[in-house]
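Private note to self, pasted from the team thread so I don't lose it. Backbone tokens:
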């Protein structure tokens, strides 16, 4: 398998974590909203993306959905849909005097399928009564039962687009019964001040040096060329370490290909967990994940960066291949992809082996607690298969893991 495919594992695992945390070098256009293919015109306020969630002016959006707003306070929304009063729970926010709410909460409650077209940065609300039949992605899911507890293991692709949805019914049915959602880290908090400070503390030089002092002349020249071609200044990333530069440049190509963390499988279920008011538990932490990247040796950081730079023109093709692998639920391709990480011992140990052990230990604890609970665990798909994968680690502990 080519080296640039190996690099893309870093992108799929971290894009939903780092792309929203690394300081944006080019402000994206504001998202648009369409209801049954009709653009919603907003007279007060405009949709915004915050922490990976699309927020929309509440009253105007409900009017476009033929829903009457009767009250909105303390993160509780009261509205009338088809003559029936409903109560919704969603994180409300006041922006310039206008009340905003998450679009998925609003759309789902009004009976609309909520999708995201990352290529056009458009939220699509399609009436479920008029929507034509669609086939969602097969994806990756396993089930483990023990001691009265059930754990569903879902393999995520952290960046996605609207073609991943709707998910097949097995995902939704399993999640509907879950008492907890488990994720690597809660990506809805990516833009929180604490996470932004972590990026600054770990990802920027503080000793008076810049990127130019830490990579070769050839590497620095390639960075400048790509940034210039992307409409940015050649020295735009000088303050950042190579691992931040790698992720930033990778995400530029992924977004151009139409894939964003805002449509990722993780965030989809985090938003639904907030709506259902079930706890979101983190198997890792932002500090652990960022520390892992920051802890890569100088040689590995520049090596990974050059893989991105040298294959920049084909990165979008690679993301497309990963998306197809996820949507078809191709276990063979996923295993091949995971095994390719072993090419670099340092990278493989930090990115997969060590993290898999930690996550498997936590899942083992969920299975053993005897509380007769259901856990819906969503982590990067590449963590599950292979000799050091979570599935094998759980089987070694005596569990039976069933592919769903």
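Design output:
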């Amino acid at each position: 398998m080519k080296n640039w495919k190996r690099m893309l594992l870093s992108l799929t695992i971290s894009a939903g974590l780092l792309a929203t945390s690394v300081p944006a070098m080019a402000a994206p256009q504001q998202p648009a909203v369409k209801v049954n293919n009709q653009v919603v015109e907003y007279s007060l306020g405009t949709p915004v993306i915050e922490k990976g969630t699309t927020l929309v002016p509440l009253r105007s959006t409900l009017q476009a959905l033929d829903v009457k707003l009767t009250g909105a306070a303390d993160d509780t929304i009261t509205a009338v849909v088809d003559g029936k009063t409903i109560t919704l729970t969603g994180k409300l926010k006041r922006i310039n005097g206008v009340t905003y709410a998450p679009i998925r909460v609003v759309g789902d409650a009004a009976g609309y399928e909520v999708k995201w077209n990352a290529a056009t940065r458009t939220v699509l609300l399609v009436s479920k009564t008029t929507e034509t039949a669609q086939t969602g992605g097969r994806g990756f899911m396993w089930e483990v039962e023990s001691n009265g507890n059930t754990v569903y293991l879902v393999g995520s692709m952290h960046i996605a687009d609207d073609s991943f949805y709707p998910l097949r019914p097995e995902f939704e049915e399993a999640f509907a019964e879950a008492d907890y959602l488990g994720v690597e880290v809660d990506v809805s908090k990516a833009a929180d001040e604490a996470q932004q400070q972590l990026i600054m503390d770990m990802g920027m030089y503080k000793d008076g040096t810049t990127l130019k002092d830490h990579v070769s002349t050839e590497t620095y020249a390639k960075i400048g060329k790509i940034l210039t071609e992307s409409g940015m200044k050649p020295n735009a990333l000088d303050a950042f370490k190579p691992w931040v530069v790698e992720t930033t440049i990778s995400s530029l190509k992924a977004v151009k290909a139409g894939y964003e963390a805002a449509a990722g499988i993780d965030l989809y279920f985090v938003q639904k967990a907030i709506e259902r008011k079930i706890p979101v538990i983190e198997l890792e932490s932002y500090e652990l994940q960022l520390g892992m990247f920051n802890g890569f040796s100088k040689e590995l950081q520049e090596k990974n960066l050059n893989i991105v730079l040298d294959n920049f023109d084909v990165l979008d093709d690679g993301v497309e291949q990963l998306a197809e692998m996820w949507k078809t639920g191709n276990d063979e391709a996923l295993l091949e992809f995971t095994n390719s990480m072993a090419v670099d011992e340092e990278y493989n140990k930090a990115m997969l082996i060590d993290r898999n052990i930690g996550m498997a230990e936590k899942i083992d604890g969920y299975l053993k607690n005897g509380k007769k609970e259901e856990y819906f665990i969503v982590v990067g798909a590449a963590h599950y298969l292979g000799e050091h994968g979570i599935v094998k680690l759980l089987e070694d502990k005596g569990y039976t893991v069933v592919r769903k």
